[in-house]
Amino acid sequence: MAEYDRLAGIKGRFVRWLRYEPRADGDVLTLDADEVAEVVEQLQYAVDTILRQRQELHEYRLEVRRLNMQLNRATR
What phi and psi values does residue 31 have, to the nearest 5 degrees? Predict the structure, then answer.
């Protein structure tokens, strides 16, 4: 659950940044080098997490398929 919350937080920050609109005084969103590095690190974490979860799901599906085949053989 903590991992999900972290990913949701990362998503929320990016949505806010993407939706940022200049204020009436002309202020615009700017990121310094540290903020860019943080954004890249957060994106890398999110991508790594998604890829790892995708692999875990694939392995789970293979195991379910294997068990299903085993069950089918046993009930014949």
Answer: -120, 135
